[in-house]
Design a protein that fits this description.
Two copies of one chain form a homodimer. Chain A has 390 residues and is an alpha/beta fold. Chain A has two domains: 136 residues, Aspartate Aminotransferase, domain 1 (Alpha-Beta Complex), CATH 3.90.1150.10; 242 residues, Type I PLP-dependent aspartate aminotransferase-like (Major domain) (Aspartate Aminotransferase, domain 2, 3-Layer(aba) Sandwich). Chain A contains 13 helices and 14 strands. In chain A, the strands form three sheets. An eight-stranded mixed beta sheet of chain A has the order 2-9-8-7-6-3-4-5, sandwiched between helices. In chain A, β7, α8 and β8 form a beta-alpha-beta unit. In chain A, α4 packs across α9, α6 packs parallel to α7 and α12 packs across α13. The longest helix of chain A is centred in the C-terminal third of the chain and has 27 residues. The first copy, chain A, starts with a helix and ends with a helix. At the A-B interface, α1, α2, α4, α5 and α9 of A face α1, α2, α4, α5 and α9 of B.
Chain lengths: 390, 390
């Protein structure tokens, strides 16, 4: 169980961070005020009244048919990708989408390319299948495509074709960074040339606070990109629903894998989300979420400018839930975290959580999504004092 | 993907069996009339009104605390096992409970003991972790403990300690058989002596149509039995909820594995099931289900006595969803199935689905749970004609 040691330290810290006197900027939870409870109840009433008995029984393994159709149509509108329902598998959250994809594609020893930093649960999943993880450098424009090309070239010389390149191109967890359009085009082109499937994690991409949305990688190369999205940030994580968009043959394999994970996704929740979505309520909720989170992001960036000590820097987050703080070289954010929780009653996630090789000691992730607006400034003040005392 | 070939043939056949002119005795779905929709709506209204925002957000990874407490208390009452909430993990259905247990215990090449026949999804899961599956003979009293002892002895001589013995002791899927009290005691004693963990699948154990409930294996040896149960047959499968009861250390490991499958179980559904359960509605539903399914079982056994041709035999099902039919030697139920669907518009599940080595051609599984009561006799008549024509 050595594989799970990093996760264990994460869960331990999250437990500490839940103490009521701690201001936590650690977890990436939605702000519960974005949920439109009246509309949720309206949809749920309709589902239970009109189709309650079907909603409580097993449903089709790849997902509720009407929801798959609705997702395919929505992706045509929002993502400019033409798909049929056979290209959609409804998963029990985005993480299950990543897990099923890894389960059906990876064998022990296969190489997976990731960004450094990258989403910790993706690392957890790839490690679980004993993949060899190769981390690639990124900067403010996202994955460095020169580095990607060099790595693909070096691996090819050794006879290695990576099975997957995992990317979270829009408002990445943890860095908040967004891959530029040029880099998107280059990544897609390189992966096609080197025959590497891209696994695109779209979790935060709809939460755009500044400027235009960039095209998804899926829209740039529909055939070579497996696309994973979640209802967690556009509806609510409590229903544990997301989806995978891929070619029909892979979707069928994911469904077979899913027979052995949870058989099918929650039928009641699928019908709820379908009803809520087809009434336009998801799009309304996304619009309201953008307003809410933009304000929080602004408040946190302002507090950081005011309070964070010299030698600390951070990137602007144009969307999503996260800000990524660069401490001075030699800092150790794991030690800082324990001290900050105990002595300053404030929590974040240490940078090392997001690096395949345990690097990242001079980084930390802040989330502005869940914290109450009126606690943001105080939270950043506490962090600043902790850093300054270090 | 060769691993999944048997499952693929199962899904193909289930698709055929869904044609509206086919009477399907294949799937193990609950009868939708057992769902008490008025009470479900009452509980759901309460959850959405009182705690809707929490229900739509992420919840604790091992499960909603009040539900874990309620499960632990219910197990004390129903199963005579003393547990604390730390011994309970809420999973996304019983299958996820099996999968997480296998994920956290099995390494490639480990030996797992199963009954022949056994639950197909358990085989699917153990194969997924590349376990060596050793199938043990069973009879009308369940697993043959002489065979278990001989197998443990032989394996020990070769230096092999199986990691798990998977048992479904009450109204087994697929055979409907129940392990006698003597065999239960012997199995528990042998596994303790040979240091083999028992994985007990309790899915159908509450649906008792005749006589007394036998004690669970968990109650006979709380320390050495990992117990998996599901809400699918006592509430509804659409919510995809079940649980694992085990020592706190294993529960913690299952939780870490679950971070990479779906992070946490559906929060909304957990709160619904908790509210429904604590009002006593689950126990009422189980009582009503027993009445309903006993009638269906009686109708199917009567139809079988009337119609099934000479040379065919079957066991009595004292509970659960299934009847297990023994065809004459040399029969091939896979071929019979295709012919029965196409020419007689009736479906069942072929016996080979439930055997690790593809045996079982002269068996088939019938489910009486989902089919409408007034179609049972006609369904068995169609099957009888198909067998007789064979």
């Amino acid at each position: 169980m050595a594989l799970f040691a990093p996760s264990r330290s994460v869960t331990e810290i999250l437990k500490l961070a839940e103490r009521p006197d701690v201001i936590s900027l650690a977890g990436g939870l939605p702000d519960p005020t974005v949920f439109d409870m009246e509309r949720v109840r309206e949809s749920m009433d309709r589902v239970l009244k009109d189709e309650g008995r079907a909603a409580l029984n097993y449903g089709p393994n790849p997902g509720f048919s009407k929801l798959r159709e609705w997702i395919a149509e929505r992706m045509a509108t929002k993502e400019n990708v033409s798909l049929s329902p056979e290209n959609i598998l409804v998963a029990s959250g985005g993480v299950e989408g990543l897990n099923l994809t890894a389960m059906s594609i990876l064998d022990k020893g296969d190489t997976v390319l990731v960004e450094a930093p990258t989403y910790m649960m993706a690392l957890h999943i790839f490690r679980g299948y004993e993949a060899r993880i190769v981390a690639l450098p990124m900067d403010e424009e996202g994955l460095e495509t020169d580095g990607l090309e060099a790595s693909l070239f070096e691996l090819k010389k050794k006879g290695v074709t990576p099975k997957l390149l995992y990317l979270n191109p829009s408002f990445q967890n943890p860095s908040g960074r967004t891959m530029s359009l040029t880099r998107r085009r280059q990544s897609v082109e390189l992966c096609r040339r080197y025959n590497v499937t891209i696994l695109e994690d779209h979790a935060y991409a709809e939460l755009v606070y500044d400027g235009e949305r960039l095209p998804s990688l899926k829209s740039l190369d529909p055939e070579n990109v497996v696309f994973v999205h979640t209802f967690s940030k556009i509806f609510g994580p409590g229903v544990r629903l997301g989806w995978v968009a891929a070619d029909a043959e892979l979707i069928e394999r994911l469904g077979l894998c899913k027979l052995g994970t949870d058989q099918c996704s929650n039928t009641l929740a699928q019908r709820l989300v379908y009803d809520y979505g087809r009434h336009g309520f998801i799009d309304d909720q996304v619009a309201a979420s953008i307003e809410l989170y933009r304000n929080k992001r602004d408040a946190m960036e302002a507090a950081m400018s005011t309070h964070l000590p010299e030698g600390t820097s951070w990137g602007h987050a144009g969307g999503g839930f996260f800000l990524w703080v660069h401490l001075k070289d030699g800092a150790d954010s794991d030690t800082l975290l324990r001290r900050t929780i105990e002595d300053y009653k404030m929590a974040f996630v240490a940078g090392s959580t997001f690096f395949a090789n345990g690097d990242g000691g001079n980084f930390l992730r802040l989330s502005f999504s869940f914290v109450a607006q009126d606690q943001i400034d105080e939270g950043i003040q506490r962090l600043s004092r902790a850093i300054a005392a270090g």
